[in-house]
TrEMBL record:
GO terms for biological process: DNA integration. Belongs to the transposase IS21/IS408/IS1162 family. The lineage of its organism: Bacteria, Bacillati, Bacillota, Bacilli, Bacillales. GO terms for molecular function: nucleic acid binding. This is Transposase. It comes from Compostibacillus humi. Coiled coil: none annotated.
Amino acid sequence: MDEKTREEIALFRYGLIAPLLNGQQESKEYFEELEGKIHQIPYYGERKIATKTIKEWLLNYRRNGFEALKPKRRSDRGDSRRFSPEDKDQILAIRKEFLHMPVSVFYEQLVKSGEINKNQVSYSTINRLLKKHKLSGKDHKSFHSEKERKRFAYDKVNILWQADLSHGPYISIDGKMKKTFLIAYIDDCSRVVPYAQFFISEKFDGLREVTKEALIRRGKPKIIYADNGKIYRSETLQYACAQLGITLAHTQPYDPKAKGKIERFFKTVQTRFYPLLQADPVSSLEKLNERFWRWLEEDYHRKEHASLSGKTPHEVFQSQLDQVTFLEDIEILDTVFLKRAERKVKLDGTVTLNKQLYEVPASYIGQKIELRIDETKVYIFEDGKKLAEAVPVSFHDNAHVKRNQSPFAIPNHPLDREGEDNV
């Protein structure tokens, strides 16, 4: 099991304990709701999960954080557990006759009929085989009618932040008209905007910047509620939320009304801020953001809000500062929001990332390493800790550097060294 799979499993486990961790649900009701439910678990497939197991995950997370949710590494890592090609063909042939059957039930039937030995072939082995040949899926039909939509609002700040992206105005950059995008969060209780900013792309780098600034300025929410856009489904955001103890929840697809407050905020921006730009246009992205932030603090946050009983968003948020949990160490944001990649180090001590060659310490030659990337640097991580930095290869400089002996080099024979002394 590689590191990426271990992290995917840890994210799944975090998703199950998050409602308990953040006090969204009472434990008794939550466990009753999960009782008997079949979960689609990364790597393991369809499984039921015992209440005792979930409690252990919750305890482990509280004691040691996100790393404690990762499965332990196999002691027999590297040993093959595969069965013969003939066995595979037989399993696949049987599966084609029982495509309607859930994989968990199919596995039990294979054991019961004597096709496989439970002690020799695990459920995950069968599940991976069927997935590879696209025989593991089944039709999932929803028997639930559309739920009645009711308005809601939390009575405490930083319980839930709604997140979204909106198309902004076109501005002139280097003589060309560029489209902008506004990425924002809004606090469900106070309607305060923890942070928002315009960018000229919809990439994750913008969301990372907005999220980091929002956490520094307004503290940490218990839940981030976003749609199914690519940047909000990114692994980087999922890992960051899990490590910070934030629940990342998503709306149903094609259901923008579920995030009514952030949609209403964008409408306010369109009706109250954009007309100001038409009267006095801006000439750069920097000036657009400066004008927007000034309007946000002087206008939006200071105006009475009908849904806040005549109070302003600023007044409501300030009245509950004792409810706000600020980050004790904001430097953690420099690591949790880094993009991740896994590479095998070549014999010359280099790895390739985004078509760029990077040099790493020679001790990693031949190993698979975890890389985390920001806008300027690439770091080597192991078990959640930064150990070293990967630097871009300079072919010119390397031509004049004396190389240390490779750890894989064969030492000279003693007789060879004697011969050298006699020369």
